[in-house]
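S.,

As promised, the iron/sulfur cluster run. Input:
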Amino acid sequence: MAHPCLSCGACCAFFRIAFHWSETDPFLGGTVPADLTEQLDPHRVVMRGTQSKQPRCVALKGTIGEAAYCGIHPIKPSVCREVEPSWEFGRHSLQCDKGRIAHGLRPLTPEDWLDPSGDNAPPLPQSA
Ligand code: SF4
Ligand code: SF4
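Predicted complex:
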Protein backbone atom coordinates (compact mmCIF):
# COMPACT_ATOMS: atom_id res chain seq x y z
CA MET A 1 0.00 0.00 0.00
CA ALA A 2 1.46 3.35 -1.05
CA HIS A 3 1.25 5.93 1.71
CA PRO A 4 -0.73 9.04 0.56
CA CYS A 5 2.11 11.36 1.64
CA LEU A 6 4.30 9.79 -1.06
CA SER A 7 2.06 11.26 -3.75
CA CYS A 8 1.63 14.59 -1.98
CA GLY A 9 4.31 16.64 -0.16
CA ALA A 10 2.00 19.65 0.05
CA CYS A 11 2.52 20.49 3.74
CA CYS A 12 6.29 20.71 3.11
CA ALA A 13 5.62 23.55 0.68
CA PHE A 14 3.08 25.56 2.61
CA PHE A 15 4.08 26.16 6.25
CA ARG A 16 7.07 27.91 7.76
CA ILE A 17 8.93 25.07 9.49
CA ALA A 18 10.33 26.61 12.67
CA PHE A 19 11.82 24.82 15.68
CA HIS A 20 14.32 25.24 18.51
CA TRP A 21 17.94 25.55 17.38
CA SER A 22 19.00 22.70 19.68
CA GLU A 23 17.48 20.24 17.18
CA THR A 24 20.44 21.07 14.91
CA ASP A 25 23.09 20.56 17.61
CA PRO A 26 24.39 16.98 17.77
CA PHE A 27 25.92 17.61 21.20
CA LEU A 28 22.41 18.23 22.49
CA GLY A 29 20.93 15.25 20.67
CA GLY A 30 19.86 17.25 17.64
CA THR A 31 19.61 15.48 14.29
CA VAL A 32 18.59 18.09 11.74
CA PRO A 33 21.49 19.15 9.46
CA ALA A 34 22.30 22.75 10.42
CA ASP A 35 23.21 23.66 6.84
CA LEU A 36 19.58 23.03 5.83
CA THR A 37 18.37 25.66 8.28
CA GLU A 38 18.59 29.40 8.81
CA GLN A 39 18.17 31.57 11.88
CA LEU A 40 14.70 32.88 12.63
CA ASP A 41 15.22 34.49 16.05
CA PRO A 42 17.54 33.91 19.03
CA HIS A 43 15.74 30.69 19.92
CA ARG A 44 14.51 29.25 16.66
CA VAL A 45 15.70 28.20 13.23
CA VAL A 46 13.65 27.40 10.15
CA MET A 47 14.08 24.87 7.37
CA ARG A 48 15.57 26.74 4.42
CA GLY A 49 13.03 27.58 1.75
CA THR A 50 10.05 27.67 4.08
CA GLN A 51 10.11 31.43 4.67
CA SER A 52 9.68 32.23 1.00
CA LYS A 53 6.54 33.72 -0.55
CA GLN A 54 6.12 30.38 -2.23
CA PRO A 55 7.53 28.11 0.44
CA ARG A 56 9.18 24.80 -0.29
CA CYS A 57 11.41 23.04 2.19
CA VAL A 58 14.93 22.46 0.92
CA ALA A 59 14.69 18.84 2.06
CA LEU A 60 11.58 18.05 0.00
CA LYS A 61 12.33 15.82 -3.00
CA GLY A 62 10.14 15.19 -6.01
CA THR A 63 7.02 16.80 -7.44
CA ILE A 64 4.13 17.91 -5.23
CA GLY A 65 0.94 16.02 -5.92
CA GLU A 66 2.72 13.35 -7.94
CA ALA A 67 5.67 11.77 -6.14
CA ALA A 68 7.33 13.47 -3.20
CA TYR A 69 9.20 12.56 -0.06
CA CYS A 70 11.27 14.08 2.74
CA GLY A 71 14.97 13.73 2.00
CA ILE A 72 15.78 13.68 5.72
CA HIS A 73 12.80 11.66 6.92
CA PRO A 74 14.54 9.72 9.74
CA ILE A 75 16.10 12.89 11.16
CA LYS A 76 13.50 15.53 10.34
CA PRO A 77 12.46 18.22 12.86
CA SER A 78 9.99 17.49 15.65
CA VAL A 79 7.37 19.80 14.13
CA CYS A 80 7.37 17.69 10.99
CA ARG A 81 6.98 14.46 12.94
CA GLU A 82 3.92 15.95 14.65
CA VAL A 83 1.97 16.56 11.42
CA GLU A 84 -0.56 13.81 10.89
CA PRO A 85 -2.05 13.03 7.51
CA SER A 86 -5.82 13.40 7.76
CA TRP A 87 -7.55 10.22 8.89
CA GLU A 88 -4.44 8.04 9.15
CA PHE A 89 -5.20 7.72 12.84
CA GLY A 90 -8.96 8.16 12.55
CA ARG A 91 -9.04 11.93 12.86
CA HIS A 92 -9.00 15.02 10.69
CA SER A 93 -5.76 17.09 10.43
CA LEU A 94 -6.15 20.80 9.75
CA GLN A 95 -2.49 21.13 8.72
CA CYS A 96 -2.77 18.33 6.19
CA ASP A 97 -6.00 19.69 4.73
CA LYS A 98 -4.66 23.26 4.50
CA GLY A 99 -1.50 22.13 2.74
CA ARG A 100 -3.33 19.97 0.25
CA ILE A 101 -6.01 22.55 -0.59
CA ALA A 102 -3.32 25.21 -1.12
CA HIS A 103 -1.81 22.98 -3.80
CA GLY A 104 -5.10 22.12 -5.48
CA LEU A 105 -5.33 18.68 -3.94
CA ARG A 106 -8.51 17.49 -2.26
CA PRO A 107 -8.32 16.73 1.46
CA LEU A 108 -7.77 13.10 2.37
CA THR A 109 -10.78 11.10 3.50
CA PRO A 110 -11.07 7.94 5.60
CA GLU A 111 -11.57 6.04 2.33
CA ASP A 112 -8.05 6.95 1.20
CA TRP A 113 -6.73 4.62 3.88
CA LEU A 114 -8.82 1.81 2.45
CA ASP A 115 -7.95 2.59 -1.17
CA PRO A 116 -4.78 4.69 -1.34
CA SER A 117 -5.26 5.22 -5.07
CA GLY A 118 -8.00 7.69 -4.09
CA ASP A 119 -10.40 6.21 -6.63
CA ASN A 120 -13.14 5.97 -4.00
CA ALA A 121 -12.90 9.58 -2.88
CA PRO A 122 -15.07 12.42 -4.17
CA PRO A 123 -13.41 15.18 -6.24
CA LEU A 124 -12.59 18.57 -4.72
CA PRO A 125 -15.63 20.87 -5.23
CA GLN A 126 -15.08 23.42 -7.99
CA SER A 127 -15.49 27.10 -7.07
CA ALA A 128 -18.09 29.11 -9.00
S1 SF4 B 1 -0.29 17.43 3.28
FE1 SF4 B 1 -1.00 15.58 4.34
S2 SF4 B 1 -0.93 13.92 2.81
FE2 SF4 B 1 0.32 15.65 2.08
S3 SF4 B 1 2.42 15.15 2.74
FE3 SF4 B 1 1.50 16.49 4.30
S4 SF4 B 1 0.59 15.10 5.81
FE4 SF4 B 1 1.00 13.90 3.96
S1 SF4 C 1 12.09 18.49 6.82
FE1 SF4 C 1 11.08 16.94 5.57
S2 SF4 C 1 9.03 16.67 6.51
FE2 SF4 C 1 9.89 18.63 7.26
S3 SF4 C 1 9.09 20.19 5.85
FE3 SF4 C 1 11.13 19.54 5.10
S4 SF4 C 1 10.69 17.93 3.59
FE4 SF4 C 1 8.85 18.21 4.86
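Helices lie at 78-82, 94-102. The chain is about 10% helix and 15% strand.

- D.
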